[in-house]
Amino acid sequence: MKSTLHIHALVKLGQKLQETLDSTDNNLPLNKAIRKSHELNPWFTPTFTRLAIRNLLPWLEPQKLSEWVEKYQSPKKSMKTGIIMAGNIPLVGFHDFLCTLISGHTAMIKLSGKDAYLLPAIAKELIDIEPAYRDKIHFIDKIPNNIEALIATGSDNTARYFDYYFKGTPRIIRKNRTSLAVLNGDETPEELGYLADDICTFFGLGCRNVSKLYLPAQTSLKPIIKALAKYKWLLNHEQYANNLRYQKARLKALNSPFIDAGPVLFVEDAQLNSQVGIVHLEFFNSIENVKEILATNIEKIQCIVGNELNKSLNLGSTQKPDIGDYADNVDTLKFLTELQS
Asked: How many other CB atoms are found less than 10 A from the CB of residue 4?
């Protein structure tokens, strides 16, 4: 796929974002957007929003972009592509935005009300770099009926609605997913620190956050709890602290055992998904049983981390996906470049 113009502009965008992150000037447009985002959504703390921006910067390097797009064909024509974005963590829809632009399509973006400022600020920076994008980026209140393709991220319930309403439109519809870790009990303190990142970054609100741990029977939790201590500052966040108090009260009312691990609660539970502030634990005697469980539930899993299973991600990497790591393992760029008019 020929994308010289896109790559040149996106590399400059990455440089601009890096300059903003390095600057102490609060009047820069993106810094203003970071501040407004926090006022709108208290879960979008400046610390985590800046981390989200920093984590996408490797995607905007020239070699990374060139190697990414070279294996795809060029689309036959530009098509209006609707993007319905989630708002659980900052800029969670940026990769869909990037895929749409670099494939030459027009992005018709329905933002989440929880994340209304960050992407428009970044898009403005991109348009300033390359004015041709002015006609390629549109922020809209409702996805129009005449869109030619759709990428939508939401819950299992909204996915059913999207599938029905846009049944005649080429589409990628994403549902609820979660991530988990399979440990072997021999992890180093450094590796457990990375696990703490996978659990606590963005308050655990992302589908790439680890919400469940599989551990060998008799594994001590003390080293994990010690590693989590670096995130005790989350308890200074009013909404998160209130949520954790609520979860403790709820579990006590239900007579459900739990372990206070500092910034999170550990609960033994076979379910993959957990509520915010809770990490489910499951102890195993046979790794083969774990493999069977994971195989059965693969459509519900976004990431698996740890040293125990082949092809698992490294601990600490869940919030740092590579540009070619596609949500739900659906190749977004392949979908966009192979669209037929």
From this structure: 8
